[in-house]
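Hi team,

As requested, here is the filled-out complex form for the adenosine-5'-triphosphate run. I kept the field names the same as last time so the parser does not choke. Let me know if anything looks off before we queue the next batch.

— J.
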Amino acid sequence: MANILLVEDDTTFAAILENFLRKKGFDIVVKYSVKSGIEALKNNTFHLILLDYRLGDGIGLDVVDAVRAEGKAIPSIIMTSFNDVRTAVKAIRQGVFDYITKPVNPDELLMVVNEALEGKSAEKERPASKARSAKLDTPADFVEGTSPAARKLHEYIALVAPTDMSVLIRGESGTGKEYVARSIHRMSMRADMPFVSIDCGTLSKELASSELFGHIKGSFTGALNDKTGQFVEASGGTLFLDEIGNLSYDVQVKLLRALQEKVIQPVGANKTVSVDVRVIAATNEDLLGTGKFREDLYHRINEFEIIVPALRDRRSDFQQFADFFIAHANEELGRDVQALSDEVNEIFQAYDWPGNLRELKNVIKRMVLLSPGNVAEVAALPEEMVFAIKNQGIAEPEPSAGNPDLRLHSEAHERKLILDVLQKARYNKSKAAQMLNIDRKTLYNKMEKYGIE
Ligand SMILES: Nc1ncnc2c1ncn2[C@@H]1O[C@H](COP(=O)(O)OP(=O)(O)OP(=O)(O)O)[C@@H](O)[C@H]1O
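And here is what came back:
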């Protein structure tokens, strides 16, 4: 039976989750702070960690870091408020399995927990799986898009793929950088050789060298056997280094040597090994701007640069992506959602999708899971997303500073305050009224007056 560590500082919510998961047959250990969560890790074996994003003495990611520092690999799920989605999406790059937004929907939680335990990461069901393309009645493998940005992207992919150049793929989190790397590999002369993907964000400092270049038995504590590194695993093929900015300085030096001289030296070995590997790297930061990335390595990696557009910059591809993710979610969850309601479409259009394709995929999967019928309604969207969008579009124009009308100024201020408090109260109107020190009826009247939905 799977053993889950839950770290959540809201005791009531923690008790509800504990109860729910126990009923579903899981063993749960509940901790209320980062410190006690890390402590619990030392004395127990967990199969999964469920973390609140904001905790009293830190953030959930601190626990993830501690797990990694111990060289353990336990999948973790972050529970976050909708306002932290941007950060949560980033967290995935730091080794978090998935995130779900609060208020947590039990069915969604169960789905993500089971996926994490099965090791079935969204990231593992890669678009280009050959088995899928063989079946005619299954949804397409990926979306290419027809927007000008998509056309340019695919033009560049086709251009660089057959060469042996190193490629640096840049783009915001979740835009499909790994998909681009796989496309390049698939269209290259190395297509029949391995494609090995490493997320440098999840490598611990101590183990990164051995992971990439291998090690010799006994070269450090814990090196019980010889280990083949990923460079050798990728021989003849392509090595994809995601989030390359996370590699430490000394690993960068070794990587530069591997690229320049085409040799690697396993940790503890006194001989070098020749390697024939094409390296494709990805990042969502300005590598040179961080001051932590070697310039010589940067230029070596960046023989060709591809920038993957953000979802908001390829709006005309949006519908295709939405249809694609709906079809996949239907297939996976046994649902039959055929369309999104007009209201959902409007919200999707107004939203800026900071987590890009990954966020769209997650939001759609949640909607499909929660939609019993053919049309996905707004009720299946995260409440705070609906709230944020509905109220951003109808913001009352702030009276200009030169306008002395005191009533207009105080109304604009009041409206903003109500919106902020509603958001803080996670949309719970009784709680918001309490925080504002007015009764519910007055709050409703004011919401109506200011067009807050
Ligand atoms: N062209 C595409 N068609 C369909 N799905 C896609 C496409 N590109 C990416 N995806 C899906 O979007 C999600 C994010 O893609 P991917 O992991 O490649 O992004 P990324 O930019 O590498 O993210 P990160 O910056 O977090 O590493 C994945 O679930 C992937 O399957």
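Two things worth flagging: DSSP finds 19 helices and 16 strands in the chain. The two ends are 44 Å apart (CA to CA).

Thanks,
J.
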